[in-house]
Amino acid sequence: MKGLSSDGFSRLRYHGFTSLNMGCNSAKYVKVVEDTKSDRVIRSALLIQKWYRRYMARLEARRRCTWEIFQSIEYAGEQDQLKLYNFFNDMLQQMEPDKCGQPKILRALSVSKRPVSMDLSVWVSSKTLRALSVSKRPVSMDSLTLEAEDANIYRLSNPDAITVEPMYSGPHITFPMTYSQLQSLIQAIKSKKRLHVKYLLELLLETREELKKLGNINQATTSISHKITVCGDLHGKLNDLFMIFHKNGLPSVDNPYIFNGDFVDRGSNSVEIVIILFASFLLYPNEMYINRGNHEDHIMNIRYGFVKEINRKYPAHATMVLRLFEDVFSWLPIATLIDRKLLVVHGGISDTTSLSDIAKIDRHKVRTRV
């Protein structure tokens, strides 16, 4: 170290030398440098962590705001309709009743001038559907037996009166359904092939017969599969249904499903979704549970797109297809009870509603709640 200049000494000091005794002081200086580096690393990590947390918090706030806006827009029309229903219901309750105990305005507006039900929803549905339904038929079936109604449905939606054209290249189905038919049907729909109206009517009629056997509350069990998949609103989004089946598998004895209503309207493939769900239900009636949502409703279908979709895809037979859809939707169960513990129902229930109340509803007469 002899003869080193002050600059040289400084250079040596920079590398950890402070005197001729290089060991001890060198170790001290290196330790200080290492501590400084570790502090910088920790501070950098904390800054990155803080930035990341703020970034994720902003994303979450944006997601919640977006969801709130979406919900307010999506259900604005339905809330307006509900308010209108409540308004007229309250108004009728305040009116002076006639000798039959009903508001006089109901007798005045009734076509038959007979006493009508105090249940406003039944009156509104019959009047509204008579004005807007493509079939123009009265909804109330009180004067008809169920057998007569069935005969009327078959007469107005008779698939035997329709022939399948020789050039038809879409899927063919027969009953009872088979698993291979279900797979072929799904593949055909994926290939943008449309089910012939004859097969669609046959599918709806078969589904109607099976739905009539069910009560208002489905009884689902996980004793065999030890699982069950509950799916919410599809709203005509066929890709969502395909994604569910791709990740979770098709319905089967070991893979039961509950579809909790609102599988039509808004999206452009409501018909295809209904076809797949009803075909799966016919194949696995004890493993495929379909609840009715507020969009399985003729008036909602008029407003939110399902009627337009039927008219676009089946223009020559739209009247009979819509009539049959309207009837089939009225036979859908209201809720599903899983293992007698979990209740799945579209829209929820109040704290005063019991299962016995749901079971007593004559669901077939409730064609619309709008």
Automatic annotation (TrEMBL):
InterPro entries assigned to the protein according to its UniProt record, in alphabetical order: Calcineurin-like_PHP (IPR004843), IQ_motif_EF-hand-BS (IPR000048), Metallo-depent_PP-like (IPR029052), PPP_dom (IPR013235), PPP_phosphatase (IPR051134), Ser/Thr-sp_prot-phosphatase (IPR006186)
PROSITE patterns attached to this UniProt entry: SER_THR_PHOSPHATASE
Cofactor(s) required, per the database record: Mn(2+)
Keyword RNA-binding found: no
Keyword DNA-binding included in the entry's annotation: no
Entry EC number(s): 3.1.3.16
Enzyme class: hydrolase
Catalytic activities: O-phospho-L-threonyl-[protein] + H2O = L-threonyl-[protein] + phosphate
Pfam annotation, one family: PPP5
Gene Ontology terms for molecular function: metal ion binding; protein serine/threonine phosphatase activity
SMART domains: IQ, PP2Ac
Keywords attached to this entry: Hydrolase, Manganese, Metal-binding, Repeat
Residues of the Serine/threonine specific protein phosphatases domain: 291-296
Assigned protein family: Belongs to the PPP phosphatase family.
PANTHER family reported in the protein's UniProt record: SERINE/THREONINE-PROTEIN PHOSPHATASE 5-RELATED, SERINE_THREONINE-PROTEIN PHOSPHATASE RDGC
Name the record gives this protein: Serine/threonine-protein phosphatase
Species assigned in the record: Mytilus edulis (Blue mussel)
